[in-house]
Structures are given as structure tokens and as C-alpha cells.
Amino acid sequence: MAFIDLNSDVGESFGNWTMGDDAAIFRSVSSANIACGFHAGDPSTIARTCRDAVAAGISIGAHVGYRDLAGFGRRFLDCSPTELADDVLYQLGALEGIARAAGGRISYVKPHGALYNTIVTHQEQAQAVVDAVKAFGGDLPMLLLPGSVALAAAEAAGLRGVAEAFADRAYNPDGTLVSRREPGAVLHDEDVVAANMVRLATEGTIVARDGSTIKTSAESICLHGDTAGAVSMAAAVRRELEAAGVDIRSFV
């Protein structure tokens, strides 16, 4: 039977500001990308999310990002490789401590937002992130965009690079994500999204926004927890994948 991982960005609430419905998303996904406090998340939110992930039997991933709470980590920061590596290492250490207290552990790393998109092509920052993960130890897998320089850097460092696809995001014909600044970047039609992800899991293709077909291989599908209708969409994607004979399980 074919299988694929479903991951979601969670633990992104901060203080009195609530983002997403993590408990509901956990009914559909197999991996949780937990914010580490730099782009979102406060200690109590992170701790609660770790406890809920452990209780649900879901893999915990470190969702590391730029130090940009005001911009939700969606703005490029022109920091030095050393500063970026230190920031990533700091986030990994913080989440690992909280995860262990909850009875779990970090089992992979996924960069967030602008950092994720930057290291598709930015060699220095990609290497900085990989260096931080390597320095942290444990040879944690890294969840990254197919064809990115970060994926190549991770594999060159002896880390497992795990390619992912995005269920609720539109794609450019070259396989990159349509910028959130452009209209139509986020998809909301459950039927279209679910059909596209079934196609990905069974045929290895995704339909780009211009109608062209992109060949890709992904071990994991991201379902953003902060997208409107995220819970319903996640359930629909899981339901249609399982109906097509695709098993949902973590890649770790």
C-alpha cells in the first residue's frame, strides 16, 4: 500500500492571540510542525501543543523561523549565516526541552515561512540552517521543498532530506510556491485540493496555477493550520487519500 505523511504548522498562538485549532487538526495529520517561539508561539502554547501531540501519537517537528514575531516569520531577514545558525540552534534547544518534558522529542526539522522560501535558492542561509541542525545532533531529517538548495545541502551534510508538497498553496510552473502577496496563492476549494493531493500521492504530479503539470515526488503533504477552513480541508484530504488506498503515516 502507498503511504504519505500529513504535516501541519501548529503551536502558533501567542498570549491572548489564538491561531488555528491544533487539537482538531491532530485528528487528521501524522506530523506536527511546532513553532519554537521566534515567529510564533509562547512557552505555554508550545508545551500544551507538545503534550497534545504526544497524546495523539503524532511526530514532533521543530518549526524554526526568522526572529520575527511581528511579521509572523513571513519577512526575509538579511542576517549573517552565523546569526541565523545560532537562532536556529536556540529554537531547537528550546523545543527539545519542552518536548522531553511532555514525554516526546524532536524527530525532524521544518523551516517556516520566509526562511523556508529563502533557502530554496539562498545558498548561505541554507547552509547556515543545515549547519545548525547538524550541530544540534541526532541527524534530524529536514522537511524541505523539492529541488531546493537546502535539500541538497542537507543531503550533502549526511542528513535525510524529506521533500514535501503543499495542499493549500498554489504552485508556479517551475515548482515553487506562488507568493502569498499574489491573489490565489492560498487554495480554499476542498475538492480541488484533495484531488490534487491524491494525484500527487498516486501519480507523482501536481497541477500548477497555469494548468501545467509538475512532476514531483513528496514524502509529506503540508496542511496549514492557520488557513481558513483548515480543519475541514485536512479531514477532506485525509479522507480522499485513504479512499484512494493511500495510508497516512509519519515519515519518521
Automatic annotation (TrEMBL):
**Taxonomic source organism:** Pseudarthrobacter quantipunctorum
Q: Name one GO molecular function term.
A: 5-oxoprolinase (ATP-hydrolyzing) activity
Question: What is the reaction catalyzed?
Answer: 5-oxo-L-proline + ATP + 2 H2O = L-glutamate + ADP + phosphate + H(+)
Quaternary state and interactors:
Forms a complex composed of PxpA, PxpB and PxpC.
Q: Transmembrane region positions? A: none
Q: What class of enzyme is it?
A: hydrolase
Q: What is this protein called?
A: 5-oxoprolinase subunit A
**Enzyme Commission number(s):** 3.5.2.9
Indicate whether ATP-binding appears among the record's keywords: yes
Q: Which UniProt keywords apply?
A: ATP-binding, Hydrolase, Nucleotide-binding
What is stated as this protein's family in its record?
Answer: Belongs to the LamB/PxpA family.
Q: Which InterPro entries match?
A: Glyco_hydro/deAcase_b/a-brl, LamB/YcsF/PxpA-like
Summarizing the function annotation, the protein's role is: Catalyzes the cleavage of 5-oxoproline to form L-glutamate coupled to the hydrolysis of ATP to ADP and inorganic phosphate.
Question: Coding gene?
Answer: pxpA
